[in-house]
């Protein structure tokens, strides 16, 4: 496999949350926090049989399974006034940043309760806030469902917009060597035609 190109494609899905949590310091619990909200989170994740780590009181890290994006890393932070959810979607695109950002902003108009955001490194997240008074199992479940749906649905489009050149190079290398293209099947149409990806 062509390591450089393969790494470029795979890196788009690599979770940077473990690299540094400082990007979310504004949400991290400091001192007293709402134990009731934390208990709701613990109970809900346990009932859903989702493995999680509570890195510090009120700060939870876990992953939800997707289809297009196989693992969607999330972090929940319970702050003084709100519960924050941060879901990693995609690394900083290789190319076409203006079109990527335009797509994200247009998409935000159609989302419920969450919004796309870009951090200082250019990595793409879904971000949500829930007032502590609204932290109930039902509202938390609806918010996590929205995050899972939007992160999963957007993933291939973001790859097509921001990593098309790397995907094309990987496709060409694999087909020339007779290697499997199974994980590139979602892009077969425009790769075989030689056209640019068609984004709705």
Structure description:
The chain has 200 residues and is of the alpha+beta class. It has a single domain, classed as 2-Layer Sandwich (Yope Regulator, Chain: A). Helix content is 40%, strand content 21%. A six-stranded antiparallel beta sheet has the order 1-2-3-4-6-5. Helix 1 crosses helix 5. The longest helix is centred in the C-terminal third of the chain and has 26 residues. The radius of gyration is 18 Å and the shape is elongated.
Helicity, in percent? Answer: 40-55%
SS-derived structural category: alpha+beta
What is the domain tally?
1
Individual helix count: 6
Annotate the secondary structure layout.
Blueprint lengths: L2 H9 L23 H13 L4 E5 L2 E7 L5 E8 L3 E9 L6 H12 L5 E5 L5 E8 L5 H26 L1 H14 L10 H6 L7
Antiparallel strand pairs: 1-2, 2-3, 3-4, 4-6, 5-6
Short description:
The chain has 200 residues and is of the alpha+beta class. The protein has helices at 3-11, 35-47, 97-108, 137-162, 164-177, 188-193, and strands at residues 52-56, 59-65, 71-78, 82-90, 114-118, 124-131. It is 40% helix and 21% strand.
List the main descriptive attributes of the protein structure presented here.
single chain; 200 residues; alpha+beta; Yope Regulator, Chain: A; six-stranded antiparallel beta sheet; 40% helix; elongated; disordered N terminus
